[in-house]
Amino acid sequence: MPGWHAATEEFAEDGRLLNVGLIQEQHPDRARLYLQWQSIDWPIMIDSLNRLDVNVVPITLLIDENGIIRHRVGRGDARNTIEEFLAELAPEPLPPAERPTGSDPAIWGDIAQRDAAIAALEKRLAADPDDGRAAFEAGVLYRRRYDEAGGDPADFELAVARWGQAVAADPNQYIWRRRIQQYGPRLEKPYPFYDWIPAAREAIEARGEVVPELIAEPGAAEIAQPIRSFDAALPAAGEPDPKGKTVRDDGKFVAAHSTVVPHTVRPGKSARVHVEFRPLGEKAHWNNEAGGMTLWIDPPEGWKVDPQRIERANPPEPVSDESRRIEFEIQAPEAAETIELPVYALYYVCEGEKGACLYRRQDFGVPVRIKP
After folding, report:
1. Cα 70 from Cα 88, distance rounded (Å)
2. 62: Cβ–Cβ under 8 A, 6 or more apart, which residues?
3. How many whole angstroms separate alpha carbon 260 and alpha carbon 331?
4. CB proximity list for 154: less than 8 A, separation 6 or greater
5. 105 falls within a domain
6. Cis peptide upstream of residue 372 (ω within 30 degrees of 0)
7. How far is it, in rounded angstroms, from Cα 280 to Cα 298?
8. How far apart are CA 266 and CA 320, in angstroms?
9. Of 82, 73, 2, which is closest to residue 40 (Cα–Cα)?
């Protein structure tokens, strides 16, 4: 988009060409941040559900005033093609006051309508599990619902499952596959998706502009760089509770939920595991004045994990009740079977508003499904 903006700026400034963007973005508010960072003031439309039904981007079309597509622009020939297009039309320049600019692509929608749409899509999928479009759209809506404050982490898992179902129905659909890669393992990433956000915020703030807030901050998977080989170095610190002496939290204080991306893993391939910890309402909150959270993964023979031990620092507040998200990656052996990956977390938690503060361990299994 910045390259096209630079190539067409001259024609847009004199009113002979109007740029309009249409993006298949899961997070419209991140698109808004990017446009402000790059000083792009085109009208932007959001097609998160990919109703345009494209399977590859970018696509650049030159359309005349009658809505007729005159040219499809390829790589490297933008300026020549635009000049040819304008020469064909000889358009009158559009006065500056009539040129639409600006965009506000943060269109999250009404919760009740979204839930009704999810129910309708699930009904379609029950009748036809190979309906890739219904599966993709359901995944988009599940993820949107998850991104809202207080969203159910099970919605993220459902989103990943539906996107996997969509790609299974049409493996050549680039847009659908990108959703899984966005949250998936580094070996499968074509590029880092949102690593530009810190630089964008810094540049916008330096210009004296208001930095727009994001509905959901990018997770570690969304800013991770691609890698070429799986690194499974053993942790120098070793296992944090090897003899299992720490008192268990059986779910009384903290709920743990895991999502594996992709939803099913091919033998010999890698996946990214997202684990979310939530204090249970009025029953508990985090004690941040003690140590941070530690996660330990104990992979079965033949499986690899990176990293095996994870330390998560506490926020600066003495107490808090936020969700805590931790991510790691696994690699299945060539002869893999579906497993429950053993994991445990160690953390400091307090009972109620004025209850005792405790050190607890929670053991749980991460279901890793192997693709037949």
Report:
1. 10
2. 69, 70, 71, 72, 73, 81, 82, 85
3. 12
4. 257
5. no
6. no
7. 26
8. 39
9. 2
**Collapsed DSSP state (helix, strand, coil) of residue 22:** strand
| 58, two tokens | 């970018």
Torsion over CA of 96, 97, 100 and 106, rounded to 10 degrees? 120
Phi, psi of 262 (to 5 degrees): -75, 170
Q: Are residues 239 and 364 in the same domain?
A: yes
Distances (CA, A) of 354 to 283, 286, 322: 10, 12, 18
Task: Please name the residues in contact with 277: beta carbons below 8 A apart, sequence gap of 6 or more.
Answer: 254, 255, 256, 293, 323, 324, 325, 326, 345, 347
Question: How many domains, the chain?
Answer: 3
Residues 6+ away with beta carbon under 8 Å from 36: 200, 204, 209, 212
Phi, psi of 107 (to 5 degrees): -115, 80
Task: Give CA–CA dist 362/257, Å, rounded.
Answer: 12
Final residue belonging to a domain, choices 65, 98, 131: 98
Q: Which residues of 192-213 are buried (b: 16+ CB within 10 A; e: fewer)?
A: ebbebbeebbebbeeeeeeebe
Same domain, 296 and 163: no
Half-sphere exposure of 16 (CA within 13 A, CB side): 15
User: What is the pTM for the complete model shown?
Assistant: 0.87
What is the chain's pLDDT, residue by residue, as a tens digit (372 residues)? 667 777 777 777 777 788 888 888 899 889 889 989 998 888 888 888 888 888 888 788 888 877 888 887 766 667 778 888 888 776 666 566 555 555 444 444 566 788 889 999 999 999 999 999 999 999 999 999 998 866 799 999 999 999 999 999 999 999 999 999 999 999 999 999 999 999 999 999 999 999 999 988 999 999 999 999 998 877 878 999 999 999 999 888 999 999 999 999 999 999 999 999 999 977 899 999 989 999 999 999 999 999 999 999 999 999 999 999 999 999 999 999 999 999 999 999 998 877 899 999 999 999 999 988
- Structural domain including 157 reads 111-183
- Could you write out the DSSP letters of every residue in 323-371? -EEEEEEEE--TT---EEEEEEEEEEEEETTT--EEEEEEEEEEEEEEP
User: Residue 253 sits in a domain of what CATH number?
Assistant: 2.60.40.10
The CA distances from residue 281 to 91, 278, 284, 347, in Å, are 62, 8, 6, 17
Q: Is the residue at 208 inside a domain?
A: no
